[in-house]
Amino acid sequence: MDLPVQQFRSEIEQELLDSFAALHDALPGAQNDRVAKLRSDAMERYASLGLPHRRIEAWKYTDLRARLGEAYPMVRPSGRPIDQAEIEKGLGPRVANLDSYRVVIAEGEFRSELSDVQALKEAGAELRSLAETLEHLPDDLGPLLAETGEQRSGFEAARPTGRSGAGPDPIIALNMALMTGGAVLRLGDGVSLDKPVHVIHLDGAGEPVSSVTRLIVVTGKGASLDLIESYAGLGGRGLQRNALTQIVAGADSHIEHTKIQREEDEAVHLSNWLLTLHENVRYNGFQYTNGGELARNDVRVLFEGEGTVMNFSAASLLKSRQHADTTMVIEHLVPHCTSRELYKAVLDDESRGVFQAKVIVARDAQKTDGKQMGQALLLSEGAEFDTKPELEIFADDVVCGHGATSGQIDEDLLFYLEARGIPEPQARALLVQAFVGEALEQIDREPLRDALTGVTADWLGVKLD
Amino acid sequence: MPAVEETVERVREIDVDKYKYGFSTDIESIKAPKGLSEDIVRFISAKKGEPQWLLDWRLEAYRRWLTMSEPEWANVHYPKIDFQELYYYAAPKSMDKPKSLDEVDPELLATYEKLGIPLSEQKVLAGVEGAELGTARPGVAVDAVFDSVSVITTFQKELEKAGVIFCSISEAVKTHPELVKKYLGSVVPTSDNYYATLNSAVFSDGSFVYIPEGVRCPMELSTYFRINEKQTGQFERTLIIADKGAYVSYLEGCTAPMRDENQLHAAVVELVALDDAEIKYSTVQNWYPGNSEGQGGVYNFVTKRGDCRGKNSKISWTQVETGSAITWKYPSCILRGDGSRGEFYSVAISNGYQQIDSGTKMIHLGKNTSSRIISKGISAGHSNNTYRGLVSAHRKASNARNFTACDSLLIGDQCGAHTVPYLEAKNSTAVFEHEATTSKISDDQLFYCMQRGLSEEEAIALIVNGFVRDVLQHLPMEFMAETQRLIGISLEGSVG
Amino acid sequence: MLEIKNLHARIEEKEILKGLDLTIPTGEVHAIMGPNGSGKSTLAYVLAGNENYEVTEGSVKWNGEEILDMEPDERAATGVFLAFQYPMEIPGVATMTFLRTAVNAVRKARGMEEYSTPEFMKVVREKANELQINPEMLKRPLNVGFSGGEKKRNEILQMSLLEPSLCVLDETDSGLDIDALRIVAEGVNALRSEKRSMLVITHYQRLLNYIVPDRVHVMADGKVVRSGDADLALELEETGYAEFGGKAA
């Protein structure tokens, strides 16, 4: 591949290269030639790309290179016990106590003793440690590990080496090169679980660390899965997270997928969702971003089968100097699919919310129905919202649209509530909740929706009645 | 404009040859030697008898340009331009400052006549009186630019009575140097972007307008640009200043002969509106779009920007883009004055192998500023049509308001319609609303029209005219009917 | 004279017309009634040439000329007019502009002289007046924001302006209150002439009290299954469509 060669390398960019050089023999799968090759290829991609910065169009509003001071050392799994109290502390009781099959990935490592491996097996799902899987890589996972995040269609696909950011993604490359652990979940044809699978990621108890993990989910034909990913810190002094989730949704499968991000104030959260949807899939995704100093949520969706419906919503609730960026690339490669995105940001203090969503409708993807909406509520003078909804449409028989709004709380509504006797702070909170509520409503499962409604109320400092 | 005698009926006359302005004029011209260098910049400046300050200004721009590289972010693709293969100055030989119309080369007059731009003031007036649409309108004053020079500016005397200065920019440099010096480059600095910087170095001619304080310009002003010479770049520069409380409506039209090679047009337009002033700038861009195989056509790389410098000032851009092989243009408003307002109304039609990447920027700097963007894109044939726009509210722009609506229509399955808006709200009291849709003409609408006797092409033209109506109504009457007809022509051959 | 022989048509894979025969002599008004889904509206669309319907067999001759190969606009020029059950909205196109464009296109195709603007305005105003259409309505975009009654009156106005020889009225009574129905029916009756044939498609007998047909045909499952005089409509009002495989009306 013809990649641009980086001329200048910042300190942190070099540190990441060094850590690969130091670690690669000890990383899981080092003995497996295919995995070792995939890792070194990925590191080469990263080496030529460097960290993304604001001159890369897809990172225009999140200058990662400038914001990352130094590369933290890779987390070393201690294997220490983690009890329910600690999980509750990290995730908050509302999320921690959701009834579910539990999967725990702590300190970059899959923790089988904390995960419901057996119960899942009985329910028809296979859960394995990623590290173990890498030692004997099954054939079907090879292509998944080789994914680079490159755009397949549209304008930029024709010139992936430009500054569009539509070429190989360095964060995905770093994940492939450096991932230490994670999980692989497979649902066979027709398997439907009776409760959600909750994958809990916990990191950073002491010194600043980096944690690089991956979750791979493959669903069989007609399977049904409710997947929750949650991310929290363990009270450490700093965390750089690179978490990647890959889902391959088999024909006719139904997936509910939610990510809850509640890391500590200094955390840097880099997340990638790579979704491949086959025919007649019902996919309903949600991302709740509430913690960390910097969060970047990349979501890439490939429609590879006809008749598929994807619905994605996100809520980012930010304060102080938090910065959260949700960037999506949705590629309609086949006809007769539907995509919906709804993004809501509530921005207080000097926080900054970013929403970019590019919907590409390839020449063959006739009868595509694509709509998106990005909305921000700015609660304070210093807050900022940047959005770039984007349509690239090459097929004529489509219905596509997007909308974006930015504004304050509606003063007329506020007055109305106050006139009904509701004190101002409460009235404001109510209106914010209503705003976020439109996104939360997209969550299909009630216990989860209620939990996040509660988390929102906690954030706003109001009591739910 | 030519549309004076047009009526809506002409919408239906779409069996005209695709590009009816494609003829070339056989006229002897003086050219600068081919290529670009400091000497060429000096040559242009000397030809125009410019003062030293302007030559220095050009040279500074030229030196900066040498350090810049062509922008690549737009959704347009074309082979690299060899800037040494172009001529940067071409003027009809007969052009030695005609004092009146009688001195203008008859060949030139005939050219404009053929384009539907009568330069004789009597004819313009007669045309108005004979207009079908009835209402008495003032005439339209025209500055006719042929390749690198202004041929003639009509109605100058009438305008002078009102205190309005309307002349070519070369003339303004001589007659009103203080105004030119004060405002030139104050909206689009020489360092702004690759093409604007190139323009600053080699600009040849263009129009200059100054409307003094409190004056409402008594007639529509317009410039008609014509590229004639082969391999000649056209780099015109327009500067319009509306002083406090002034009003002006300005129209711009452009055509070029059909030629196999691409022609470069890199203009810069600067508008300045002081307190309570209003500038309405309309463009009907009909440069040669290239043939049906995508050969030839004009590269239209234009920087247009208005500065709402004063309180409660207003700048409104209306554009109808049907021509050019490649269009790269973003008429913008800097809303600096408190209470100022920017508007952008655009129809962009692409057919054949045309590529359009166009839109606007609304930069809200002052308090209580507002902006409105209505963009209608129509793609047909093998063309690609991108709306790209930025709306930003800076920290101090409290109560900034923007409303944006972008609608795209696709005709046929080999074209593309794209929407790339950027919204940046750095002030919590700013309220932005943006909406965009992409669709095709519904089969049911087409069937309904055809059941009533319209052919498929007529039906499409009719529906498209309805689609763009929100924008066309912002055009001066003179342009509206002409434009409706143009839309029909531009979409010819888009069916089947 | 309209002669439909063994007409088969389908939409996508579904056959809807299954060998329909129908003859309407010049100057007569025929009604087609039938249960929902019997193919009445499909017949209207096929006569007007809608490309969504594929004709697989049969012929349709208008005054001896096969029209199935013609484009919709060519059929309009030949004199076929369809009053739509759901008239289309076209944003941004003033009703007056649309009318003038259509009328002049048809006149041109028929070798007649096009109307000048003042002539046309005069003709439209007269006819609009007869149909109690407010001239303000003509300035509004075509059918956009029109009430059900306004849309249907607009259809009849177009019918009267385009001077067709074969009028097909598809459920013109649907969505009309009794006053609007009367106005529309009067408009239609005014256009009855010995040179003009009409096909009135309706689910209910109600309309036929106002537009009294020469013949009534019952359509079921894509075919004409029974024909009779105007009294047949009254009979159906009593008995419903049950015997033709439809639900009781």
TrEMBL record, chain A:
<feature type="domain" description="SUF system FeS cluster assembly SufBD N-terminal">
    <location>
        <begin position="11"/>
        <end position="199"/>
    </location>
</feature>
<dbReference type="Pfam" id="PF19295">
    <property type="entry name" value="SufBD_N"/>
</dbReference>
<dbReference type="GO" id="GO:0016226">
    <property type="term" value="P:iron-sulfur cluster assembly"/>
</dbReference>
<protein>
    <submittedName>
        <fullName>FeS cluster assembly protein SufD</fullName>
    </submittedName>
</protein>
<dbReference type="Pfam" id="PF01458">
    <property type="entry name" value="SUFBD_core"/>
</dbReference>
<dbReference type="InterPro" id="IPR055346">
    <property type="entry name" value="Fe-S_cluster_assembly_SufBD"/>
</dbReference>
<dbReference type="InterPro" id="IPR000825">
    <property type="entry name" value="SUF_FeS_clus_asmbl_SufBD_core"/>
</dbReference>
<feature type="domain" description="SUF system FeS cluster assembly SufBD core">
    <location>
        <begin position="209"/>
        <end position="435"/>
    </location>
</feature>
<dbReference type="InterPro" id="IPR011542">
    <property type="entry name" value="SUF_FeS_clus_asmbl_SufD"/>
</dbReference>
<dbReference type="InterPro" id="IPR045595">
    <property type="entry name" value="SufBD_N"/>
</dbReference>
<comment type="similarity">
    <text>Belongs to the iron-sulfur cluster assembly SufBD family.</text>
</comment>
<dbReference type="InterPro" id="IPR037284">
    <property type="entry name" value="SUF_FeS_clus_asmbl_SufBD_sf"/>
</dbReference>
UniProtKB/TrEMBL annotation, chain B:
<dbReference type="Pfam" id="PF19295">
    <property type="entry name" value="SufBD_N"/>
</dbReference>
<comment type="similarity">
    <text>Belongs to the iron-sulfur cluster assembly SufBD family.</text>
</comment>
<feature type="domain" description="SUF system FeS cluster assembly SufBD core">
    <location>
        <begin position="225"/>
        <end position="467"/>
    </location>
</feature>
<dbReference type="InterPro" id="IPR037284">
    <property type="entry name" value="SUF_FeS_clus_asmbl_SufBD_sf"/>
</dbReference>
<protein>
    <submittedName>
        <fullName>FeS cluster assembly protein SufB</fullName>
    </submittedName>
</protein>
<dbReference type="InterPro" id="IPR045595">
    <property type="entry name" value="SufBD_N"/>
</dbReference>
<dbReference type="Pfam" id="PF01458">
    <property type="entry name" value="SUFBD_core"/>
</dbReference>
<dbReference type="InterPro" id="IPR055346">
    <property type="entry name" value="Fe-S_cluster_assembly_SufBD"/>
</dbReference>
<dbReference type="GO" id="GO:0016226">
    <property type="term" value="P:iron-sulfur cluster assembly"/>
</dbReference>
<dbReference type="InterPro" id="IPR000825">
    <property type="entry name" value="SUF_FeS_clus_asmbl_SufBD_core"/>
</dbReference>
<feature type="domain" description="SUF system FeS cluster assembly SufBD N-terminal">
    <location>
        <begin position="160"/>
        <end position="217"/>
    </location>
</feature>
<dbReference type="InterPro" id="IPR010231">
    <property type="entry name" value="SUF_FeS_clus_asmbl_SufB"/>
</dbReference>
From TrEMBL, chain C:
<protein>
    <submittedName>
        <fullName>Putative ATP-dependent transporter SufC</fullName>
    </submittedName>
</protein>
<dbReference type="InterPro" id="IPR017871">
    <property type="entry name" value="ABC_transporter-like_CS"/>
</dbReference>
<dbReference type="Pfam" id="PF00005">
    <property type="entry name" value="ABC_tran"/>
</dbReference>
<dbReference type="InterPro" id="IPR027417">
    <property type="entry name" value="P-loop_NTPase"/>
</dbReference>
<keyword id="KW-0067">ATP-binding</keyword>
<dbReference type="InterPro" id="IPR003593">
    <property type="entry name" value="AAA+_ATPase"/>
</dbReference>
<dbReference type="GO" id="GO:0005524">
    <property type="term" value="F:ATP binding"/>
</dbReference>
<dbReference type="GO" id="GO:0016887">
    <property type="term" value="F:ATP hydrolysis activity"/>
</dbReference>
<dbReference type="InterPro" id="IPR010230">
    <property type="entry name" value="FeS-cluster_ATPase_SufC"/>
</dbReference>
<comment type="similarity">
    <text>Belongs to the ABC transporter superfamily. Ycf16 family.</text>
</comment>
<feature type="domain" description="ABC transporter">
    <location>
        <begin position="2"/>
        <end position="246"/>
    </location>
</feature>
<keyword id="KW-0547">Nucleotide-binding</keyword>
<dbReference type="InterPro" id="IPR003439">
    <property type="entry name" value="ABC_transporter-like_ATP-bd"/>
</dbReference>
